[in-house]
Amino acid sequence: MIRLLPAAALVVAAAIVEFVRTSSVTEAGEAAVAALIAAGVAALALTLPGASVRGTVLGGTLVLAGILTWTSTDRPVVIWAVLGAGGVLWAWWSRPWLGGLRQVPRLGGAWTGLAYWPLGVAGAALVGHWTVGAQRAAYAGVFALAVLAVIAFVRGTGRDPSVAVAAAILLGVAALLWAGAGSVFDTVREAPAGSAQGMRDRFWGGLGLFYHPNSLAGLAVIAAIRVGADRAFGLAQRLAVTGLAGLLLLLSNSRTGLVFAGGAAVVHAFLVLRRRRADLPDYRRRWPAAATPFLVLVIVYVSSGGLDHLTRDRFNTGASPGGSPVAAATSGRTDTWRQVWRDWEDAPLAEKLFGNATTSRAVVTRLDDGAPPEGPRRQLNTDNAAVGAFRRGGVLGAAAFVFGVGLLVVHALRRRRAGGWPAAWFTVGVLAVVPTIATEDWMLGGTNGALWLLLVAGEAYLVLRPTPPVEPKLPVGILTTPVK
Asked: Structural domain of residue 41, as residue ranges?
């Protein structure tokens, strides 16, 4: 009973806050139900077997940094304080650094999430943008230390840190569900200031704690992949993360999340029906097990509005005069990508090779972004990891990204002589995330890099974990004695 007191306190607190805000018993009851779900997600995270404190802190730092990019957009010092504190811990945990650095090129995730930073530093230096170069060097150092900390953990303990990163992700999801408990079941929800106000039908969080719905959906799906496709976890835990992913897909109204989850369902079904991975749960009925994720996706698709959900312009960024239907359906992404190409064509040779050096994160500015003509232009992300690598690292950055994705896929599919097949969840995660490269920057890491870090952790465990010595096989019937 004592263990239930924190959960009960959170539920009561959420109900009281909502009642004070709305003076409605019904709204307070809905907030209590949402807070109860949040408490259950937190309990699930804290009871995952195999999670470590170090790995949870490592993943939690990037989860918190991602949330702060939307919560404290106008106060970047807060984001940098979190990253700085994390960097100090990662630097301590990643010793010896030289040994870890030698292993970094072996990880495809390191190529996709790190390579464009030093390239961008070089490009900024070549065109004399020293402030941008210094900021990029700081980013490069922080995220490189995160990868080194993962490598040091795997090589030092021989354990898989991805479970702890998944636990941190679930704790972040729980925090957002609790903070937004008052609007979880509403049609109009809280959202951060700015362009997000046009998407208040989607769940962002609440009480000043926000996260982009697409990123939130991605976190829920990758956590479901990590836990749901591993027999190390109980049936209740696997069903819980699958249901949670469905709930977050519905609340976030995320098309990219649906693509991610759909890809995961396809690969999971293939592996279940082929029975080639020993670490998959021991399903007694394979067909129902393969069909369950698809059932969740059908429910989400129908409940969220069907075809209209897939074609609606979310940001209104593609609705400029003369804007194309494709731009509208992709919420202006295609227009942003065209702007990236135009900027590249006008850039000097150094920026063509090493990336745009205008800002530290190489954000994109468009005159037809849907903002009022008299107001400031939006600083847009590329929302395409390949285009993002090209924007931030130029031609060389795009080449590094393609190489990294290829290396990730090879690691996800290749059977290793000593270690056998890669973990089923890692195969599902890598193959499912590839289609989302077209509409999200997930694979570039950065402050929204929790999903990227989980894949890096799984890849590091697959590639770098110590291999136990193989005992020599002796001929049957021959008795041997130890040599003295």
From this structure: 1-47
